[in-house]
Each structure stands twice: as C-alpha cells, then as structure tokens.
Amino acid sequence: MSVNSKLYEGKAKILYATEDPEILLADFKDDATAFNAQKRGSIENKGMINCRISSQLFQKLAKQGIKTHFIDSPGPNLMRVKAVKIIPVEVVVRNIAAGSLCKQTGLIPGTVLSKPLVEFYYKNDYLGDPLLTRDRLLLLELATPEQVDQIIYLALEINKFLREFWEKCQITLVDFKLEFGLDHQQQILLADEISPDTCRLWDMIETDPENRIMDKDRFRRDLGNIEDAYQQVLRRVLEVV
Predict the structure, then answer these.
(1) 44-78 per-position pLDDT tens digit
(2) What does the pLDDT average to over 151-171?
(3) Whole-Å CA distances, 14 to 30, 72, 92, 126, 136
(4) How far, in Å, CA of 179 to CA of 92, rounded?
(5) Relative to the CA of 153, which of 95, 144, 160, 202 has its CA 20 to 30 Å away?
(6) Contact at 8 Å (CB) between 230 and 43?
C-alpha cells in the first residue's frame, strides 16, 4: 500500500494520507506523554502493543454493532482507518473513582460508582483540556444536541462490552477515554484507540494498589515495570480473543 504525505503527528500516532482520500494510515509510536505532554518518555514496543490491542477491540466492537474507523492492520504498528473529522471532545467513562475525579470531588480512590459516569473534555492543549458541561459543549458548537445524545449512548454501550471483555482478561476497567469522528456521510464513528494508554486497567489477580496498575499510570507515577504491564495486557487480550 503506497503512502503519501504525513498529515498529522500527535502524541501517540502519526497519520499519513494514502492513494485513497477516504483512507488514512495510522502509525502508532512508542512515545509516551503525561500531564498534557509536560512529562515525556518512551515505552518499548508501546506502539505495537497498543495497535494490536486496539485492532482486536475495534473488531470485537464492530460485531456488537458499534461502527468504528478501523479497516485493518497491515503491519505491527500500523492501522488503516477511515478518514473522519474528529469531534474535538474527549469522552471519558468512569466505573471506579480514580485520577482527576478524586482530586476534583474528594471521592476516595477505588470507590465503585453507583452507575457509569460519562464526562466531556474539550480537546484543546492550550486550555488544558478542560472539563465541559453539556451546555458549554453546545455553546462552543463542538457537536449538535443529537450528536451528544448519540455519543453518550455509544459510550455506555462500549463500556458495557469493555467491562465484560476486560473481566474475561481478569482485568478491572476503572475508566477510559474515547474519541469519535464524522465520516463523509456524517456518521459518528469510534476513532483513535483503545489501549493501556487510554484505559485505566487494574489486575484482578493483584491486591497491592500499585502493583495492580497495568496502564499508563505506571508511567505517570514512575512506578516502573511499564513495558511488562503493557505486555501482560496484550498477552491476556490475545488469550481471550
């Protein structure tokens, strides 16, 4: 497959144009960032691991009726995807209190929420990706009311599937981030990735609150054994699929 010019380079991926304007090639990087890119580093084989996990999960979600931008994976770090216009909103679904939710509310880390919480964050590095209310999201015209309703519905459906899937892997899904985009027909498609970079994942087999962490929090908090944790997540995913 011939590749044309680089269209965009983000913190975790590079997007390239292809001979088909409706198809892009995503190259998953080993680069790691945290705290709005204030902390930078690299995680060995992260690109390959995240690409393989995301590819498997996108295919599983498609079988559940969730439309995604995934087409195929022509190489270890590569994913062919449908070209979409990304909605500049990060959608976070929380099942257990952790991270910023605890800092902003005083909830004790590890508190199981009575029902999943769906939050919106403005994808704007300059502003620090602020938390948005629904009304602010609509005020900024980041999405229509109908699109917001559909995104909430899709986020909760994805959460149902992922919670069950990760449980089969003996992993607890604490929370995760999603991104959505619009294709040329204005359909909402799940985009970006689903991986230890975008999910908080706790090992059900491990009781120690630090040792159980299997996601990018190991990098954020300098806990070490980052590569081993990512590899373990991939091994369990492949065992289940």
Answers:
(1) 999 999 999 999 999 999 999 999 999 999 999 99
(2) 98
(3) 11, 16, 23, 20, 30
(4) 9
(5) 202
(6) yes
